[in-house]
Specification:
By secondary structure, the chain is mainly alpha-helical. The chain contains seven helices and five strands, in the order βααβααβββααα.
Amino acid sequence: MSLRNPYGDFEVTDPQAMRALAHPVRLAALSYLQKNGPATATQLSEHVGASPSVTSWHLRHLASFGLVSDGPAPDGTADKRQRWWKAAARGFRFDMPATPEGAEAGRLLRAEMMNQALESAQHWLAQVEPGLDPEWSRLAGSANTRLVVTQEEAEALENAVQDLFAPYVRRGDDGAPPDARSVRILRFSLPEAIN
């Protein structure tokens, strides 16, 4: 695991780990832990659409790749009757592997990440946005921009976006000003086919 990227994200390099994360329950469980902190399989089961025992199995599978681990109870006590889980890092990232098997694993993970991102956006639109203050609602950005760039320029753009976001990601919730609010930024860079 490397945390030397701009966000301090867990870098997934093993195609088997990518396949593991491509499962909807596993990805949802990891996302929940990254956002909300330590939880038990029973608590997570309500959010991932699986029974506590199935959720526990998926968490153990994620732990085999280092993506989650045993965590302390939020109150700091050690209750041996409950197993608390925590995410290894606040986020994760991966590069598309060069091997055919690795690329297939990367595609599976990318597809599930996009599915969950679209579900998150639809939930926001239906449940969250109607209750926002007009000022915050106005700040919700939506764009569909087409660029014509070289591979080097596309990489430079991606790096520039990461560098722009990095200070806000790294400071975390505790380092944010008192009036700060959580904002989810969903980005897709989708190179188009050559005509």
